[in-house]
Amino acid sequence: MLKIIKKQRAYRRLIKNLELKKIVLQSLFFLSKDLTTKKYAKLLLFKFSKRQSSKIRNICVLTGRTRGIYQDFGLSRMKIREYSGAGQFSGVSKAS
Fold it and tell me: pLDDT band at 50, cuts 50/70/90?
C-alpha cells in the first residue's frame, strides 16, 4: 500500500507543476498581441491533456484504500468509524 500512496503523491506534484505551466501558457495566449506568440502558445496548450488530472484518485492516507474516502479527513470510512468510536475525532459521535 505504501507504494500506491507514494506513487499518488508524486503524481499529484507532477500535475500541480503542469497546471502552473498551463496557466502561464493560457495567460500568454490571451494577453499577447503578437500573432506568432499566440500560435506558439496555442501549439503548446494542445500538448496538455485533460485526462492527466483524471488519473488522480482519492486514497486513504493510512490504508491506501481508494473507495469510501472522506475528503475532510483523507481517510476511508472504516478508519473514520474506528477512530471516531475510540473518541479520537472531536465533535464526531455515533448517530444512534
Answer: low
